[in-house]
Amino acid sequence: MFKLMRFLKPYWWQVIILLLATGGQVYTTLQLPALMADIINNGIVESDMATVWKDGLLMLGLATISALASFISSYFSAKVGAFFSRDIRAAVFQKVLMFNLADIKNYSTASLITRTTNDVNQIQMIVTMMLSMLLRAPLFCVLGLVMAIQTAPEMSWIVAVGIGAVVISVIIIMSLVAPKFKVFQKLVDKVTLITRENLTGLKVIRAFNNESIEKRKFTRTNDELTKLLIFVDRILELQNPLINIIFNGTTLLCSWIGISLLDQNYSYLGNMTAFAEYVTFVMMSFLMLSLFFIMIPRANVSAGRINEILKVAPKIHFPKKTRGVPNKKASVEFRKVSFAYPDAAEKVLDDISFTAEAGKTTAFIGSTGSGKSTLINLVPRFYEATSGEILIDGIDIKEYAKDDLMQKIGLVPQRGVLFSGTVKSNIKFGAPNATDEQVRKAAEIAQADGFITRLPNGYGSHITQGGTNVSGGQKQRLSIARAVCKNPDIFVFDDAFSALDMKTDARLREALKPITSDAVVLIVAQRVSTIKDADQIVVLDKGKMVGKGTHQELLGCCKVYQSIVKSQLSDAEFRKEMHGATR
Fold it and tell me: Which domain does 473 fall in, by range?
């Protein structure tokens, strides 16, 4: 928890104002019982109206100052708490953006969402409470106790009894609920995860008629969370009757002892009244502190989960400035590159070497799990190669500043990703300064202009989160248009044509040729028809490069490639392809 207190540093002057206002509120509030005692003892008992008026007006003035100080204190505690949580959310979000793909796999998306929202809210609540009670409760407790003893020393033992009862009740409650808070956060993560999975996979669930299975899964976790909440709430609700019993018992003791002392001195009535108020202040301050300490364990769990994210050290480091001067002609070169996931027994890629030149297309093909997408993800450093070198324009990618490296690459991922906004904003995502003409041209090349112009507002039409209001093929074409609009030196297509029909695929690849004449084109594909015209095809099998060459060359010498081609063609078509390769 204390590790997060560094986020309060920018607001130190507001915290000082808050503390000064709190001190003023405590001082003025604690003067009121003494003035009331003076009014009773010297004003009412002695029939001195001058004292009544003087002390009454003074009480009114002090009460006004106390209310103003309380407002200032509450205002700044709420403001600082809100900004504090804002800064933590921003820090967590920024840290997650810096994660590589391996880091993201260590945490579920649901958990990251919960940590950014629910956990931060828990921290904000405890910090706001801490700021509002940081000085108020201890001052009320200590000064109220001193003034109570000064006012009626004969009854001071009552305060000790009340405080002891409050402390014992708080310890019992904390010991019962504190261990449950960690379990609670994990169950919240699980509920979020199941909800997210069901929302994203709703079509699959309905297609397989598995609504009842998913409902049982959610109900089971939801019931666990509900039972835990009921248990915690029941224990916490015990606090109210316990505190009421303690308060009422303390008040009863004050009245009983005080009334017995009135027989000796009638003017003791004012002291008894003031003492009762001071005891109330002391007990209330202990109550506030008990609430604070009951909430601390839950906040500590949330703080631990947030710190777990913030302390993740980036596994991939970028220099601030690019070291070296890149070649003018674009190229991508792999030199004996291998890659294995952390703690994995086998390599995903092993000893991969090839050179992709500007103006030429290099394609990658292989069976599922052969490492095609992983290889592509090494180029923008989503993963770091375990061994070997990857050079872009003659410079090792580890020598590139992040912005310089990403500026060179136009990536179209395997699953088209769109963001909430408009068609235009999605195409301009990688090139914010692109003109309307550049956006339209990119859409035409990606074969997207036709369906865009048929939308109600054309390029200004709204795209929902995740692009759920467009088809899979439309989503892929918009993703391709986004990469084209960026006009990068390296185009990376990770199975980006899979949702397109054969005619659209052919037209798109033909339209790409003029704009990729000076760029490197890397294509991962499952369909041979998409890559058969590539200048170079790299064939992968179980992470190893088993072939490299043109379509015709590979048909003549690579059995793995032959089997891939054969699986996608009829026997007659395959024989024709093989006949062409042997000519």
Answer: 331-549
